[in-house]
Design goal:
The complex is a heterodimer of chains A (about 525) and B (about 325). Chain A has about 525 residues and is an alpha/beta fold. Chain A is about 35% helix and about 25% strand. Among the domains of chain A are: about 70 residues, no CATH class; about 170 residues, Rossmann fold; about 70 residues, no CATH class. With about 325 residues, chain B is an all-alpha fold. Chain B has one domain: Orthogonal Bundle (ABC transporter involved in vitamin B12 uptake, BtuC). Chain B contains 13 helices and 4 strands. Classes of the chains: A alpha/beta (about 525), B mainly alpha (about 325).
Chain lengths: ~525, ~325
């Protein structure tokens, strides 16, 4: 940890000295959601003909910034200036009109429409009679594609294109609205090295046209290759910005992670017992391969990695939601054959999913019915549901988790995020598992509930439960884990014992930056 | 939401009561117990079908083939009765339920194993089952004089003041309530519709649950096939044409969410009774059949609007949740 705390919260460096005036400037932008401050007084400047790299951990506030710039969120505080003139984006269209365009991580285009239609959707040229001018659409699309050195026929349907080609279409779409500010949100995530080179040539071209580019990426080599300036985000604040040329990589890594974690997450010391659960050479056709690890009684194994590293996919396959292509699971010396989540629950492995709303809860159903759902076998008597048993079960875990609700019969949808998360955790604890997988257990909940969840995870470990905790938050991983496995691009990039844990080591392993 | 649902049932009861009171000022004796019992008896088949439909809708599916299933099954038992008058009625009823359940199982299997959207599957089988009824009968009719007296009379037989048909409906209502609130299958149905992904994670087999829901719906449609043919004392290819929409309407009016996972047996029954009262009252007070259809339609649209408003409250919480999620995305 040494070296990290010294740097934390350094004041931003002076803005890059350039002769040009920024096209876009954000001053003191804050975005507040119930219980969470997603952005806290962020100021950035984008200059014509320059690429600014936006760097930060998952959850640092990068996506929120993009959403503000594209007019989807309206910030609670601060102002946006375009060419020095204060502007508010009242809608996505207003942002486009102001010349801001974004190329998203997963391109948002229409498979069944042609390339040209995709490019001009929403602003198609019209004929005198107000109908769509197909000739100009197709010729305009062709010209744009040529500008990108691509010969794609504008009349073919998007679904016949490769991912890289789709990206080109997305870029052409961005150019077709005559944007001056182009946001690229992890544009290289799905591209091969050669395609990335092509993309970078295009970016150089955009620079020459004087466009200001905000480039979001996790990959340091790319950032250094293409960008002039950088901004590092951490916990919703811009903690450092400057010229990349004058800034070594190590410093950026430190800016990304710099903070003291030991005080925030007091780890409950637990005697770690014998190995309980073993994963051997687990492979999936597309998401991950060759994952092996062991989990001991009372141990918390942190699972760290960037989004898309295959962590959730690994956990889902341990739980039987997806099937691995090869590999073996051993629980308490017995080889498991898990074909469905029901099998996993019966074997004693449970998974508390990341997206509460989507995977975790049936919102219209009462609390107690949500809690008892995976345990109905236990609460029912000879095939009949027993509401009394279900309520007793729910009451027990609601008390343990300090769940705040008017009654256990109210629908889960009426609870706050933190309390919903408690229902999810309670529901899985009620199955009395041996191994519990927690996928981003504190994502999107407020600080107070976070501390309660952390304390509770510590208690579970103390009771002898083995825990796998997936988290994108370094402090959480560093503070809670006995060991950490880092995943990168579907592979185990390293397993770190608690003594060897450091934020820098984890980020290096996760980004592949040696 | 629970309280809101209860409100919905109370509200429907009040509306139905007001309607009955209103109609009775125009038509003498409309509110008399005898007439009300008649209306209930008239609505019995709709109630039975609506409960099957509700089970399917709870799982986020829809069964458009119930009326066609009813027509085929009705034709099959009527022809069997005409050809073999000595077969006991109990056997015919078991046969009706069995055929109906089998046709429902075909729907369920297509939805479950082939993952075809339920609306497409049942739109297809709706035509197929109707066509099968035509092939079976060769387009002919089975008339009252060809049917045995037991076959025709049992559902009309009064027991404790109500015809057996009404008692069957009451039994089915109790049975549906029991299945949906007291058996794991019922809980699985609510969970599969309420949040399919969460249901999978909880170890519930959604496909199997949907399959069972279609079998239940089919079995009830089969039973209704016999009841319909016996009540109207005639079987032909086009009986109950379009009736599947009435069953869906009863569910919607009764507050069963088309998106799945929300609804109660009481709601479905009241929704069916609401339609039953309107259908019985409008001719009595001299409104033309065409206006009746328009009025039914307006009521359905109003019910959907009402449902959407009730559900928006839950939606708001999900949105807030999503807002928070974006933060860490």
């Amino acid at each position: 940890m040494n070296g990290v705390t010294k740097i934390q919260d350094r004041s931003p460096q002076p803005a890059p000295t350039t002769e040009a005036m920024p096209i876009l400037e954000m001053r003191g932008i804050s975005q507040i959601f119930p219980g969470v401050k997603a952005l806290d007084g962020v100021s950035i400047k984008l200059y014509p003909g320059q690429v600014t790299a936006l760097i930060g951990e998952n959850g640092a506030g990068k996506s929120t910034l993009v959403k503000i710039l594209t007019g989807i969120y309206r910030p609670n505080e601060g102002e946006i200036l375009i060419d020095g003139v204060p502007t508010t984006f009242t809608s996505a269209q207003a942002a486009i009109d102001a010349g801001v365009t974004a190329i998203h991580q997963e391109t948002v285009l229409f498979d069944e429409l042609s390339v040209a239609e995709n490019i001009f959707l929403g602003h198609a040229p019209r004929t005198r009679f107000g109908t769509i001018d197909w000739r100009r659409i197709n010729s305009g699309a062709k010209a744009l594609m040529l500008q990108l050195e691509s010969e794609i026929d504008p009349t073919i349907r998007l679904r016949d294109l490769s991912i890289a080609q789709r990206h080109l279409v997305a870029i052409a779409r961005a150019l077709s609205v005559e944007a001056r500010i182009v946001i690229m949100d992890e544009p290289t995530a799905a591209l091969s090295r050669k395609e990335i080179d092509d993309l970078f040539r295009i970016v150089e071209g955009l620079k020459r046209q004087g466009k200001a580019i905000l480039f979001i990426s996790h990959k340091f080599d790319e950032v250094y290759e293409i960008a002039e300036n950088f901004v590092v985000f951490r916990d919703g604040r811009a903690v450092g910005q400057g010229r990349l040329k004058q800034t070594p990589q190590d410093e950026i890594v430190r800016l990304m992670v710099g903070r003291d974690v030991k005080d925030v997450f007091p780890k409950v010391e637990v005697r770690i017992g014998a190995p309980v659960f073993r994963v051997e050479n687990y492979c999936h056709p597309t998401e991950f391969r060759d994952i092996s690890f062991e989990l001991r009684r009372g141990e918390i194994l942190g699972l760290y990695g960037l989004i898309g590293a295959g962590r959730s996919e690994l956990c889902q396959s341990l739980f039987g939601v997806t099937r691995p292509s090869s590999g073996r699971l051993v629980l308490e010396g017995k080889s498991l054959d898990i074909r469905s989540s029901g099998d996993a629950i019966r074997a004693g492995i449970v998974y508390v999913p990341e997206e509460r709303g989507r995977h975790g809860l049936a919102l219209p159903m009462p609390i107690f019915q949500n809690m008892s759902l995976p345990s109905l076998g236990k609460t029912s008597r000879s095939g009949f549901l027993k509401a009394a048993n279900e309520l007793a079960l729910a009451r027990k875990y609601a008390e343990r988790l300090d769940l705040r609700a008017a009654a256990l019969s109210v629908p889960v949808g009426t609870l706050s995020g933190g309390n919903q998360q408690k229902v999810v955790i309670g529901k899985w604890l009620a199955t009395q598992p041996k191994v519990i997988v927690l996928d981003e257990p504190t994502k999107g909940i407020d600080i107070g509930s976070k501390a309660a969840v952390h304390a509770f995870i510590g208690e579970l470990a103390a009771e002898g439960l083995s825990i796998i905790m997936v988290s994108s938050e370094l402090p959480e991983i560093l503070g809670m884990s006995d060991r950490v496995m880092v995943m990168r691009e579907g592979l185990a990039a390293g397993i770190f014992e608690r003594e060897a844990l450091s934020a820098e080591a984890l980020v290096r392993a996760a980004t592949g930056n040696q | 939401m629970n309280r809101l649902l209860k409100n919905r049932e109370i509200l429907l009861t009040v509306i139905i009561a007001v309607m009955i009171a209103g109609f009775s000022t125009r038509a003498q004796g409309f509110a008399a117990p005898g007439n009300l019992a008649n209306i209930f008896n008239d609505t019995s088949i709709l109630i039975i079908l609506a409960l099957g439909q509700m089970t399917v809708i709870l799982t986020k599916s829809i069964d458009l083939s119930v009326a066609a299933n009813l027509a085929f099954t009705g034709m099959a038992v009527a022809m069997t009765n005409a050809a073999y008058p000595d077969l006991p009625l109990a056997l015919l009823i078991v046969m009706a339920i069995g055929i109906g359940a089998f046709l429902g199982a075909i729907n369920g299997y297509l939805v479950w194993a082939l993952r075809i959207p339920p609306i497409v599957v049942t739109l297809g089988t709706l035509t197929i089952y109707r066509g099968m009824a035509f092939v079976l009968s060769g387009g002919g009719w089975v008339n009252a004089h060809q049917m045995g007296p037991t076959f025709l009379n049992v559902p009309r037989m009064p027991v404790l003041g109500l015809p057996i048909l009404s008692w069957i409906a009451i039994l089915i209502v109790l049975g549906a309530w029991f299945v949906l609130t007291r058996l794991p299958f019922g809980r699985a149905a609510y969970a599969s519709g309420g949040n399919p992904t969460a249901a999978i994670y909880a170890g519930i087999d959604i496909g199997w649950t949907k399959f069972l829901a279609f079998v239940v719906s089919g079995a009830l449609a089969g039973l209704s096939g016999y009841l319909w043919v016996s009540r109207y004392a005639v079987a032909y290819v086009d009986i109950a044409a379009g009736f599947e929409l009435d069953t869906v309407a009863a569910c919607v009016i009764g507050g069963i969410s088309i998106a799945g996972g929300i609804g109660s047996v009481g709601g479905a029954v009241l929704g069916a009774l609401f339609l039953g009262v309107i259908k019985n009252a409008l001719p009595v007070i001299g409104i033309s059949p065409f206006a009746q259809m328009a009025i039914s339609g307006i009521v359905i649209v109003l019910a959907v609007v009402f449902n959407a408003r009730a559900e928006r409250k839950a939606g708001r919480i999900i949105l807030r949740d999503r807002g928070a999620k974006e933060v860490s995305a």
